[in-house]
Amino acid sequence: MAIRLQGKRALVTGGSDGIGLAIAEAFAREGAHLLIVGRDAGKLETARRTMARQDRGVAIETLSADLATSAGIDAVGSRVRQSDRPLDILVNNAGVAYLVPFETVSAEQFQNSFALNVTAAFFVTQRLLPHLSAGASIINISSYFANKMIPKRPSSLYSLSKGALNSLTKSLAFELGPRGIRVNAIAPGTIDTAMRRKSIVNLPAEAQAELKAYVERSYPLGRIGRPSDVAGMAVHLASDEAAWTSGGIFAVDGGYTAG
Ligand SMILES: NC(=O)c1ccc[n+]([C@@H]2O[C@H](COP(=O)([O-])OP(=O)(O)OC[C@H]3O[C@@H](n4cnc5c(N)ncnc54)[C@H](OP(=O)(O)O)[C@@H]3O)[C@@H](O)[C@H]2O)c1
């Protein structure tokens, strides 16, 4: 099969773990040069080394930055500005999920959630706009939670932030389309990552068992997702195969939201 992202330059936020790492690995396999961003420099370096071992002849760079802060967003802008070649692919993936009851959501949780899930996607994209190539692809990692809830998994704050990201995706597709820039979102179902494990670890055993049973009977394909399940869609949206695809919110969820 032809290499689909040969020579393209991609930036993946949250590219050191989970879904973002799987997307970065898939992009590298398809020949893209990478800049991955996260907070923990050690995790970034481990990811870089693992991808470098694949030896695809691609450059893999890392940037440690907290995207929930304006300094972190500035750092991304400065790093990309240093390059004399435009960026072809931007994946706004870093996110945080507070699955807590509406009445207990704190102002700090609200602020953190919007800072990373919405503000970072908005302003990282704005900062990088002058450095995007004509034909660039922006991919926002949303969630099924924007539109579909799970019993006993209170999601008002998370759902609100991902709904906002979906609106940003559609409005930017409209606004940036005339410049040849495509903007799409992927809405994954439940994916087995550190984020997911962290969100269930404090539930009582009974609630964990109930959740597992709910997932097994609710996902038509009978299992939750793996990070690599999301990466395939990201490669497609990043590639020229999707040259006329913009403004879409693509479910990658084993059929969950079909029901
Ligand atoms: N897992 C799921 O079930 C699921 C389902 C639907 C949608 N999603 C969405 O998919 C995206 C990725 O989730 P995931 O499950 O792969 O998460 P994850 O395994 O926790 O990985 C998150 C990544 O983002 C980075 N990150 C976190 N906070 C950051 C910050 N403030 N600044 C910069 N980087 C930061 C992390 O590195 P550091 O910690 O080192 O910063 C890590 O690389 C999120 O937007 C999430 O909402 C996840």
Characterize the structure shown.
The chain has 259 residues and is of the alpha/beta class. It has one domain (9-258): Rossmann fold. The chain contains eight helices and seven strands. The chain has helices at 18-29, 41-53, 70-81, 107-128, 156-176, 194-200, 205-218, 227-238, and strands spanning 9-13, 33-38, 60-64, 87-92, 132-141, 182-188, 249-252. Strands 3-2-1-4-5-6-7 form a seven-stranded parallel β-sheet, with helices on both faces. β1 (9-13), α1 (18-29) and β2 (33-38) form a beta-alpha-beta unit. α1 (18-29) packs across α8, α3 (70-81) runs parallel beside α4 (107-128) and α4 (107-128) packs parallel to α5 (156-176). The structure holds NADP nicotinamide-adenine-dinucleotide phosphate (NAP). NADP nicotinamide-adenine-dinucleotide phosphate binds next to α1, β2 and α6.
Which key terms come to mind for this protein?
259 residues, alpha/beta, binds NADP nicotinamide-adenine-dinucleotide phosphate, 8 helices, Rossmann fold
